[in-house]
Amino acid sequence: MPLSPEQKAEIEASRGQTAQTLRVVSPGMEAHLYTAHEVLDHGFVRVIDYMGDDSAICQAARVSYGKGTKSVQNDEGLIRYLMRHWHSTPFEMCEIKLHVKLPVFVARQWIRHRTANVNEYSARYSIMDREFYIPAPENIAAQSVVNNQGRGEVLEGEEAARVLEILKTDSGRAYDNYEAMISQDGQQGLARELARMNLPANIYTQWYWKVDLHNLFHFLRLRADAHAQYEIRVYAEAIAAVVADWVPFAYKAFEDYRMGGATLSATAMECVRRMLKGETVTQETSGMSKGEWREFEGVLRG
């Protein structure tokens, strides 16, 4: 269970408090504020704070004193122009602070995005909770035979059952030993900063993660992609749903130009021009390597 009754009560109490403000408020984001969106078996994502909205992006681009006299349509058109031409700094005017509960191995992937501010739960000072990520049966898969960093067919029957039992047993045993090592019942007890080394990578940790919208879009482009690992992708998808309500114009432009768009090299563009003129272009006549040509065909096929 991701949230205890006490945590849910605390969230409801936070949502019940209101304050008058002169700053920009996003109605879509206000609906998400403090609410925990459950992810995986024990994880969640919740918004702690945010700054800005679609109008803040436009304000920064225009360097104006307020929202001005521009229409909503003009704001949307400006945002799409900024996204289309890779003008990133106006998007940096919006920020979001998230509280995330996630497995340690997902956190180690996530932390590679270094353009954010992070403060993680410390196992040096505190005792880790006995919570582990155990995949659902449909997410237990074999190694992919075509992608060294991906998974292939779903494991079934006795092999799947054996793997799940190993994950559960090893996780429990590791935590039992962790508790035994730090216990001060009849012994000094090992320091927490040392005992934590025995914990498995599927144990849950928590952190506060603050990032601007430009760098958040970069995170989502990579981690909400269908090729991303499932366990981090579901977090990215949960965040994306929040962002879509927070800055709808910016998110729609992001979907169109980043998630749904494609970047072509100069060589690829020349091939497109030749094809439009009616020429038959093959990999051998394209000037591309086999890998480049395969990716190019994938873009054309959609």
Automatic annotation (TrEMBL):
<dbReference type="GO" id="GO:0070402">
    <property type="term" value="F:NADPH binding"/>
</dbReference>
<feature type="binding site" description="in other chain">
    <location>
        <begin position="120"/>
        <end position="124"/>
    </location>
    <ligand>
        <name>dUMP</name>
    </ligand>
</feature>
<keyword id="KW-0808">Transferase</keyword>
<dbReference type="InterPro" id="IPR036098">
    <property type="entry name" value="Thymidylate_synthase_ThyX_sf"/>
</dbReference>
<dbReference type="GO" id="GO:0050660">
    <property type="term" value="F:flavin adenine dinucleotide binding"/>
</dbReference>
<dbReference type="GO" id="GO:0004799">
    <property type="term" value="F:thymidylate synthase activity"/>
</dbReference>
<comment type="pathway">
    <text>Pyrimidine metabolism; dTTP biosynthesis.</text>
</comment>
<keyword id="KW-0489">Methyltransferase</keyword>
<comment type="similarity">
    <text>Belongs to the thymidylate synthase ThyX family.</text>
</comment>
<dbReference type="GO" id="GO:0032259">
    <property type="term" value="P:methylation"/>
</dbReference>
<feature type="binding site">
    <location>
        <begin position="109"/>
        <end position="112"/>
    </location>
    <ligand>
        <name>dUMP</name>
    </ligand>
</feature>
<keyword id="KW-0285">Flavoprotein</keyword>
<keyword id="KW-0545">Nucleotide biosynthesis</keyword>
<feature type="binding site">
    <location>
        <position position="89"/>
    </location>
    <ligand>
        <name>FAD</name>
    </ligand>
</feature>
<comment type="subunit">
    <text>Homotetramer.</text>
</comment>
<dbReference type="GO" id="GO:0050797">
    <property type="term" value="F:thymidylate synthase (FAD) activity"/>
</dbReference>
<feature type="binding site">
    <location>
        <begin position="212"/>
        <end position="214"/>
    </location>
    <ligand>
        <name>FAD</name>
    </ligand>
</feature>
<feature type="binding site">
    <location>
        <position position="120"/>
    </location>
    <ligand>
        <name>FAD</name>
    </ligand>
</feature>
<dbReference type="InterPro" id="IPR003669">
    <property type="entry name" value="Thymidylate_synthase_ThyX"/>
</dbReference>
<keyword id="KW-0521">NADP</keyword>
<dbReference type="GO" id="GO:0006231">
    <property type="term" value="P:dTMP biosynthetic process"/>
</dbReference>
<protein>
    <recommendedName>
        <fullName>Flavin-dependent thymidylate synthase</fullName>
        <ecNumber>2.1.1.148</ecNumber>
    </recommendedName>
</protein>
<dbReference type="Pfam" id="PF02511">
    <property type="entry name" value="Thy1"/>
</dbReference>
<comment type="function">
    <text>Catalyzes the reductive methylation of 2'-deoxyuridine-5'-monophosphate (dUMP) to 2'-deoxythymidine-5'-monophosphate (dTMP) while utilizing 5,10-methylenetetrahydrofolate (mTHF) as the methyl donor, and NADPH and FADH(2) as the reductant.</text>
</comment>
<feature type="binding site" description="in other chain">
    <location>
        <position position="196"/>
    </location>
    <ligand>
        <name>dUMP</name>
    </ligand>
</feature>
<feature type="binding site">
    <location>
        <begin position="112"/>
        <end position="114"/>
    </location>
    <ligand>
        <name>FAD</name>
    </ligand>
</feature>
<keyword id="KW-0274">FAD</keyword>
<feature type="binding site">
    <location>
        <position position="218"/>
    </location>
    <ligand>
        <name>FAD</name>
    </ligand>
</feature>
<dbReference type="GO" id="GO:0006235">
    <property type="term" value="P:dTTP biosynthetic process"/>
</dbReference>
<feature type="active site" description="Involved in ionization of N3 of dUMP, leading to its activation">
    <location>
        <position position="223"/>
    </location>
</feature>
<feature type="binding site">
    <location>
        <position position="223"/>
    </location>
    <ligand>
        <name>dUMP</name>
    </ligand>
</feature>
